Amino acid sequence: MALNTSTEPLPAAGHPPQEREGPAAIVGGAIGLLSAGVAVSVGHLAAGLVGGTSSPVIAIGSTAIDASPEWLKSYAIRTFGTNDKAVLVAGIGLVVAILAIIIGVITLHRPRAGVVALVALGTLGAAAAVGRPENGLGAAVPSIVATVAGLGTFSRLRRAAGLPTPVSGTGEAGASLPPSFDRRRFLLAGAGAAGLAAVSGLAGRFLMRRAEASASRAAVRIPAPADVAPLPPAGADLHIPDLGPFITPNDRFYRVDTALLVPSVTAEGWTLRVHGMVREELSLDYPTLLSRPLMERDVTLTCVSNPVGGRYIGNGRWIGAPLADLLREAGVDPGADQIVSRSVDGFTVGTPTAVVMDGRDAMLAVAMNGEPLPLEHGFPVRMIVPGLYGYVSATKWLVDIELTTFGAYDAYWVRRGWAQQAPIKTESRIDTPKQSATVAVGPVTVAGVAWAQHRGISRVEVSVDGAWQPTRLAAQDTIDTWRQWVFVWDATPGDHTLAVRATDDTGATQTATPADPAPNGATGDHTISVTVAG
Ligand SMILES: Nc1nc2c(c(=O)[nH]1)N[C@H]1C(S)=C(S)[C@@H](COP(=O)(O)O)O[C@H]1N2
Ligand SMILES: [Mo]
After folding, report:
1. Which of 28, 44, 463, 482 sees the fewest Cβ atoms within 10 Å?
2. Residue 390 C-alpha to ligand 1 middle, in angstroms?
3. 276 near 342, Cβ under 8 Å?
4. Ligand 1, CB cutoff 6 Å, lining residues
């Protein structure tokens, strides 16, 4: 028996070894439970990385479902309803845990029982995973990884308890803990194993859910919209290098949300509840939403946190179901001045009911630039309301809409000091040349974008060292989109300051006074310095 003599406390005087039999069973059970826990969780994580239904426990569970008789399946569905899968997984977990504890206690006498049990779990898992029709040989990998992790934990915890390693150990170990047992040392090792199991289990679950959501998204077919948007006019995009395209591609679209991990929602599992101050509560699933008449619209999304000259703005072509129609079906109480929309992760947005109902193209969007919404941008369904900053209009991973009042409820960012109402402010940005650029003498293309969603841009001016001059506007798509502009500057040698300002269709010019984004959007003229080489 290999004892770690350096750190071992001496057995307390007067405590005969047999008094440690109770604790021995607890330590044995804990070793069994933790080894199995690490095996299962690491297997889950490996399966999350490999993909598919290759997690050992899931594969064993799925095989068990397929093999179980029809009467048992229908009994389970009758008894547990839609929770039948969750109950099954919990049941498998419980059985594995109880077996692991029993085997763990047995390993005090017979250490090799633990090795046999872990290898058996891995073999069963591998066989079940490879046997699934959708899987290949690679599906065995997570089970192999799980077995190795389980065995490693088993021998590590035995060492921490002062027990012989499973291979060197013989039956003579007995049911009591060795005198060298150090509780602190074992608890630390046990906590490490528990932590490893928790982290890898959660990471595995996250990866698997993400894979499910991606697969769900890949299978989605968005029907042709009943109300098609004309293509943006040819002149809407000036095609100037360094000026982004008129429609922002999905992979270049800014992303702002509070989600540490992108929520994974499948189209199949999605439902939306419309409730609160309505005549009739509604609940719809994804196919029902897609079966409604859909509309297609170009809408420029902007974040309230966008500083002057910032990048938190993008223009997309969205397809979705008109939100006002849905609310009319639910019958909104005239007193309900706020629509609170909620994401699957609990994030909330408060939108004025009057704005959504005023005829603008507020929608429950399902597609972005010709594809189902990307996961990062709210798959399967998000809200889009032209003219309002994202935090008061653009709920991603939308699952719940409640009609209420502004008096009764403050949404996520409002509780943190941002304004309850936040229409997008008229703003503009210089995209080329860049701040501090050095350009050549002669004609220099100065270009950028301007936006005043739902009012429209009617004029953009550029100032060179304080003298304002008109620019050429690109063709307007709609009043809900941004507008590109260009100005050809005859640059003279030296240092110069360029600024831009926009005027919207109401005749109002953007606010020149600089203000921070909080609490309702930044103001000020985007200003850059450039050097013209002589
Ligand atoms: N669920 C959820 N939806 C959300 C947010 C969020 O944090 N969580 N952020 C909002 C904010 S502040 C903005 S600006 C837009 C950004 O949308 P995008 O990431 O698709 O560009 O999403 C809005 N919708
Ligand atoms: Mo935002």
Report:
1. 463
2. 6
3. no
4. 253-259, 301, 303, 343, 347, 377, 390-391, 394-397
pLDDT tens per residue, range 235-277:
999 999 999 999 999 999 999 999 988 999 999 999 999 999 9
Break the chain into its structural domains and give their ranges.
19-217, 234-416, 427-533
Tens of pLDDT, residues 124-152:
999 999 998 888 899 999 999 999 999 99
Residue 397 pLDDT greater than 60, yes or no: yes
Give the position, in ligand 1's atom list, of the atom nearest the Cα of 391: 12
Residue pLDDT, tens place only, 153-174: 999 999 999 998 776 545 445 5
CA 193 to CA 157: how far, in whole Å? 8
Backbone angles phi, psi at 255, to 5 degrees: -135, 125
Considering every ligand atom, which ligand is closest to the CA of 412?
1
Helix (H, G, I), strand (E, B) or coil at 532: strand
Cis link prior to 519 (omega < 30° from 0)?
Answer: yes
Angle, helix 70-80 to helix 84-106, in steps of 10 degrees = 110
Ligand 1 atom nearest 343 alpha carbon: 1
Centre of ligand 1 to C-alpha 337, Å, is 22
Sheet with strand 457-464: strands edge to edge: 438-440, 527-533, 494-504, 457-464, 467-470
Q: What is the pTM of this model?
A: 0.85
The CATH code for residues 234-416 is 3.90.420.10
Class of domain 427-533: mainly beta
Kindly tell me the burial class for residue 518, based on how many C-beta atoms sit within 10 Å of its own C-beta (0-12, 13-18, 19 or more).
middle
Which residues have CB atoms below 5 A from the ion given as ligand 2? 256, 303, 390-391
The pair of three-digit structure tokens given for residue 103, joined into one six-digit string = 């085997």
Instruction: Looking at the CA of residue 301, tell me the nearest atom of ligand 1.
Output: 21
Measure Cα distances from 333 to 322, 361, 400 in Å: 19, 21, 17
Ligand nearest to the CA of 257: 1
Could you tell me which of 394, 258, 407, 220 has the C-alpha nearest to residue 318?
Answer: 394
Atom of ligand 1 nearest to the CA of 389: 14
